[in-house]
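A quick aside before the break. I want you to see a complete sequence-to-structure record at least once, exactly as it would be stored in a machine-readable document. Don't worry about memorizing anything.
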Amino acid sequence: MIRLPSFHYFAPQTLAEAARMLADAGPGAMPVSGGTDLYPNMKRKQVTPPVVVGLRGIREMNDVRKLSDGSLSIGAGVTLTHLAAHPLVREFCPAMGDTALLIASPFLRNMGTLGGNLCLDTRCHFLNQSPFWREALGYCMKAEGDICRVAPSSPRCLAITSADLPPLLIALGATVRLVGANGERTLPLADLYQDDGIHYLHRAPDEVVAEVTIPPLDGTRATYIKLRRRGTFDFPALGVAAALRLEPDGQCAAASIVLGAVTSRPIVVAEAQTLVGSKVTDESIAALAGEITRQARPLHLADYTLSYRKQMVAVYVTRALKQLASEGGPVG
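That is the input. The structure line, written in tokens, reads:
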């Protein structure tokens, strides 16, 4: 049995209290909610925070609210199980609930939270192993070492993002609110991430991800599909989120595509804008999927071979767009 290292645990009742505890404990402290990611990482000694600040007792993080402007606000403490089944989420964006059901397993979804998935640590086959395994292979720059085992000449860690909800929420234009000891700030969810496997979040050590807000969808269709070896539990070897808003005559009014599990941050595909202003056809989908595939450079950090994952980019982008463009595609 792999045991947790020793640490001090604090249980604040408010966001302000949590931010103050994190600030007082210093940059080594870490917040935790469900613990489905942090505690396994601690057992493998990937991280060994001396202080852990638990967020489960903060009631203000557990609300799901429809705002006066039609936006949907979801507290970061909402569990994935609750998110998948909540009537407001199902009414506002069924794809969000469907995506939550693709994460992990029922037991882990009962514990894991929206905020935890947004802040999910980056992953790498060379890192997410026991200390004995890492010592035998040679340490990497994310844990004890000074080089990237995937690309030894790389100046930064190349561990990849493996969260399922961020690509979809970014495609929907979501914003995130962070609360710190010196106040709070709101930013586009896409700006929360940076392309660095170690410092993958634009989040200060004392900041807590408090809530996510999705703007009114106004008829936007959305979907998320993931490549994985098993039909449940597995992290994505590739994730594709897509959102389309079509006019009554079939013209595309808005389009967004976001890739996950390719680099250290979700990739917002700028080429999706080529769909806007014309009808979404098999030909335009094929051209866009081909262009995205040419630019995608998945690394040897996840399941399947590199060449297969690269080929699947076109397959999954095509599948997602055809689903949304058809009359049977899920709305919102």
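Two observations worth writing down. The chain has a mean pLDDT of 94. DSSP finds eleven helices and twelve strands in the chain. We'll return to this after the break.
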